[in-house]
Amino acid sequence: MTYNAPDSTGHFGPYGGQFVPETLIPALDELRAAYAELAGDASFQDELSSMLRDYVGRPTALTYASRLTEAFGGARIYLKREDLCHTGAHKINNTAGQILLARRMGKRRIIAETGAGQHGVATATVCARFGMPCVVYMGAEDMERQELNVLRMRLLGAEVRPATSGSRTLKDATNEAIRDWVTNVRDTFYIIGSVVGPHPYPMMVRDFHAIIGQETSRQLQEQVGRDAPDVLLACVGGGSNAIGLFYPFLDRDDVRCIGVEASGEGLGGRHAATLTLGEPGVLHGALSYLLQNAEGQVELAHSISAGLDYPGVGPEHAFLKDSGRVTYVSATDEEAVRALEQVSELEGIIPALETAHAFARLPDIAAGMSSSELIVVNCSGRGDKDMGTISQYIQERDQ
Amino acid sequence: MNDRLARAIRRSAPDPALGMFLTCGFPSPGETLGLMHAMEEGGADFIELGMPFSDPLAEGGPIQRSSARALAAGMTMQRTLQTAAAFRQTSTLPVVLMGYANPVMRYGLGNFFAACHSSGVDGIILPDVPVEEADPFLEEASRQDVNLIFLVSPLTPEARLRRIDSLSSGFVYAVSVAGVTGAELPDPDDVVRYVAAARHATKANPLLVGFGIRTREDVLRYAAVSDGCIVGSELVREIERAESESRSVKERVRQFVHMLKHGV
């Protein structure tokens, strides 16, 4: 079968769509038309390729993880090194694509939301590169937790506006960004940071990240003479790095895809395992799985990783879960920190806390496979930004 | 076809029709019903009762605050519907529920519209359900004879406005500016021009104007080129002011609505 979601109205099966105020519909129509035109435009694609090569630093390496492979005694493990991208995570693949689109559309002002600050930094970076004014909405609570990224954004010339409503985290920052967009839609481009939001964002952000999977296929061919691994493994918050890795392989029945959500304190406590424990609902412009109470009010997520601390998830993941094409599991705060320590010691790579959730499920999966089989883990970001959080966590744990 | 709402709007002429918005459960769940009666006494032609939601992305600060307070006080969909039903026991004034897709979908579309019908609710406004996503809502609304009211904005092209008008019932809600509720209206002349054009293109329904309307002067200005106005955020601010001055909220609401409707 050929995988061809979403349909022309932006639905992945029943999920996705455009649940937004009327004022935004003409802007989404304009964006959809511009994206459809530029996706097939050679000069746009050349401009994007050059920026990814000369500024972002692509292609990123595919690294054979020999000591992790040895430690788990099963499949051979490869790491797709998105942590080596400029700004330290995969997020910039998408902000590079969207800012070029914004420029072609003649938009003069950029807004974004951010949770941990990685998408905010990646947006502020490309805005600095092109001299465009940038406003980043960030939950007031996240601004305290991720002070360094706030400083980075300000150094890059962005204005960081605290979201003080609701839970004062990513969900509320997204509400504020949407309210700004509704108000300034004529000249403002909203760079959404994950495969969430109204159509065409989930599709467009996925397409900009698909280079992760495309490079992986080519690099595996060069290194081991196969164009696909047996298993792909990635963490899922909104789900952008995971879909970027999975998407080019979704037609391949011989490739298993596994997404790892954050189960925080555990599935019985505070968590962010939206696909595992949520139910279908509408938030931020799309129907997807959602953490919500019996009244349909959105519940607060929890994860040690601010980037996974979101009560929603991209609609394509909801569709891939229901269809069974992708398997979704979860990892706790504790498991993620242990995995981060292990990967640091064995491979000399300190992954981001988000990424560490994928590594946390790696031992069980790899050990059950043979040494002739391959796993690719999306090493979606580096952990420098998390040093404060990790230091505090380890001190409390090891007391 | 339920036409209580459209009739109430048309009956108001030549005076401007006035819809008053209040979040159910604000300032407290026990006060809402009394305030609905106060709005009726003040001269409201219909009441728009807000169904509180945790993430009201079309709302500015005042309605966000009222929604958060209502939820913190334990407001639920069931209690909102009960409040509407209790009001219907003693009044024939049209009632419209306004809120967001998720709590309605969670309640179940079939259950929700059936409950609206049996509670005497005349119409529903869901600002995050544009016509693109409206089919299942339209089907249940029609089955239960409840109006589904769509919004248009200054950015809505005319062909799209005609389509929205053809799917809407009760009235068409013209958002005064690209923005959120309670927004500043920087150029009233722009708003007047847009509303007049939208009114001209709207054939099947009355057209009412909302977002950022605060004073009697605003009401007269925009009602002159439409079928009436809706006021919400400024009512929240009035209630907050009355609370901070330890005045009677109910009397303040009655006076404020009377001023908007009659100018005294």
The termini of chain A sit apart by 54 Å
Main pleated sheet of chain A: 6 strands, mixed
Number of strands of chain A: 14
Major β-sheet strand ordering of chain B: 5-4-3-2-1-9-8-7-6
Q: How is this structure best described in words?
A:
- The complex is a heterodimer of chains A (399) and B (264).
- Chain A has 399 residues and is an alpha/beta fold.
- Chain A has helices at residues 25-39, 42-56, 66-72, 91-104, 118-130, 140-145, 147-155, 170-184, 201-209, 211-224, 240-246, 274-277, 315-323, 333-347, 353-367, 387-397, and strands spanning 11-12, 15-16, 62-64, 76-80, 109-114, 134-139, 159-163, 188-190, 231-235, 256-264, 279-283, 286-290, 326-332, 374-378.
- Chain A has 16 helices and 14 strands.
- Chain A has a 6-stranded mixed sheet with strand order 3-4-14-9-10-13, with helices on both faces. In chain A, strands 7-6-5-8 form a 4-stranded parallel sheet, sandwiched between helices.
- In chain A, β5, α5 and β6 (134-139) form a beta-alpha-beta unit.
- Chain A is globular, with a radius of gyration of 19 Å.
- In chain B, α2 links the parallel β1 (17-23) and β2 (46-50).
- Chain B contains 12 helices and 9 strands.
- With 264 residues, chain B is α/β, with parallel strands linked by helices.
- Chain B has one domain (4-262): Aldolase class I (TIM Barrel), CATH 3.20.20.70.
- A 9-stranded parallel sheet of chain B has the order 5-4-3-2-1-9-8-7-6.
- The A-B interface holds A 9, 17-23, 25-27, 165-166, 171-172, 175, 178-179, 182-186, 281-285, 290, 292, 294-298 and B 53-58, 60, 64, 68, 71, 76-77, 100-107, 127-130, 132-133, 150-157, 160, 164, 175, 178-180, 183.
